[in-house]
Amino acid sequence: MAANPVVPVPELLFETGTTETETTLHCTGKIVSSTAAQFRDAVKNLIPGKKIITLDLSGVSYVDSSGLGTLVGIWVSANREGCELKLVSSDRIKELLRLTNLDKLFATSRLPDPPSF
Q1: DSSP 99
Q2: What single string gives the DSSP state of each residue in 33-97?
Q3: What is the pLDDT of residues 25-58, one digit of tens each?
Q4: Closest C-alpha among 79, 89, 15, 13 to residue 52
Q5: Could you give the CA distance from residue 85 to residue 23 in angstroms, rounded to a whole number?
Q6: Contacts of 50 by beta carbon, 8 Å cutoff, 6+ apart
Q7: How far apart are CA 26 and CA 13, in angstroms?
Q8: Half-sphere exposure of 34 (CA within 13 A, CB side)
């Protein structure tokens, strides 16, 4: 009898979109200690030569302290290169940034609420 292999689901996925004025990195999953380096590398590879990078975290369900530290490090790197870093986030992540006083670093946007019927 053959065993059914279990394929692990990636904890964090990325999709990149680019226009003339900005690059958007759509993230889905969790930004935690096990994915922080992957997140950092994905964003830092986008920074050179860019004026605006938007991190769409609306698909991120959880951010731990490693994720917050990584966001700050990314902000420092982008700022050093003259790149504006924007966030699109859920209310949950926006509140986390507010509670940790990190909301002042980022120009945050929020996705509109879905229509209620």
Answers
A1: H
A2: TTTHHHHHHHHHTT-TT-SEEEEEEEEEEEE-HHHHHHHHHHHHHHHHTT-EEEEEE-HHHHHHH
A3: 999 999 999 999 999 999 999 999 889 999 999 9
A4: 79
A5: 10
A6: 22, 23, 81, 83
A7: 8
A8: 7
- Return the residue matching tokens 């120009």: 107
Residues 40, 75: Cα–Cα separation, whole Å: 10
Give the integer Cα–Cα distance in Å for 4 and 83.
47
Angle CA 91–39–57, to nearest 5 = 20
pLDDT digits (tens, 9 = 90+) for 14-30: 999 998 889 999 999 99
Give this prediction's pTM.
0.81
Q: Which residue's structure tokens are 């200690």?
A: 33
